[in-house]
Amino acid sequence: MQLTALARRARPDNFTLTLLATIGVASLAPCRGRWAHGFDILTDVAIALLFFLHGAKLSRQAVLAGATHWRLHLTVLSCTFALFPLLGVIGSPLAQLLLTPSLLAGFLFLCCVPSTVQSSIAFTSMAHGNVPAAVVSASISSLVGLVLTPLLAGLLLSRQGSISAQGAMDIVLQLLLPFTLGHLSRPWTGAFVERHRGLLKFSDNGTIVLVVYTAFSAAVVKGLWQHTPVSALLGVLVMAALLLAAVMVINLWASRRLGFDREDRIAIFFCGSKKSLASGIPIARVIFAGQAMGALVLPLMVFHMLQLMVCAVIAQRYARQYSAGTVTKT
């Protein structure tokens, strides 16, 4: 019975299954020629709309509220944009043995992506952590990631020849422009976005599905599966699991050493140990423009699947401890 319940909590969510199905469709029926060009245009429009809506959603009050709990937010940002890239560099020698060059570049890019928003908040709430802090911290991570992710990716991937630091700087304007316009439009669009939160989720998920389909279509046409051995795919799973485990252990240890209470530690754990598909894949689309993106985003997708399954189990464990009354504030 317990094994069945554990398996149910750890199984992939519906969206992960949708992404796997999208990869399957792209592998069997990739878009080509004019269809590929049309999908490219549609995807660019969807990405612009996605960042516009995120800009309209983020209130200035939420950003200002972050200043009152700066130690927590700084800890989360350090995990996301310092610890992850450091572990990526440390793990590069092993990754070079296990992965193809494109998958290695994708692994390093994964380390530069901002934290998730929706799932970080959901898991923090489920575990009875500091939800307001998680809301602000995850939102700040997404905002800061618009600048830091391209810069970090340019730094880490310049050796791989995937992108240059100048190229990373150039795409900041492409991502920040719709976000800034959305935020400036908040007096007129903010209330609409708040009333229609499902629209933002649809935009997130729909954009990711579009990018994944077009990315894998282009990669399949160029021989992705012929040039990617099964051993390399297993290597992606191994590297993602090692990265997630290392981040979670260091995250828990550091938040205790820094003296955060239980609720704050939960928020730090779930916000600082995850990476966002919703932000990462659209950013990758712009950074790696003109390249076969399929292998480059595969490590991020695998990590996303693992983080959701592992965090679901851990959040349930925290929730059971809370319900049993066996926890304290410290």
Number of strands: 0
Strand count, sense and barrel status of the largest sheet are: none
What radius of gyration results from the CA coordinates? 19 Å
Shape: globular
Secondary-structure element series: HHHHHHHHHHHHHHHH
- CATH architecture assignment: Up-down Bundle
Query: Helical content, roughly?
Result: over 70%
Question: What does this entry look like structurally?
Answer:
- The chain has helices at about 1-10, 15-30, 35-55, 60-65, 70-100, 100-110, 120-125, 130-155, 165-185, 185-195, 195-220, 225, 230-255, 260-270, 275-285, 295-325.
- Helix 7 runs antiparallel to helix 14 (about 260-270).
- The protein starts with a helix and ends in a 6-residue tail after the last helix.
- About 80% of the residues lie in helices and about 0% in strands.
- It has one domain: Up-down Bundle (Na+/H+ antiporter like fold).
- With about 325 residues, the chain is mostly helical.
- It is globular, with a radius of gyration of 19 Å.
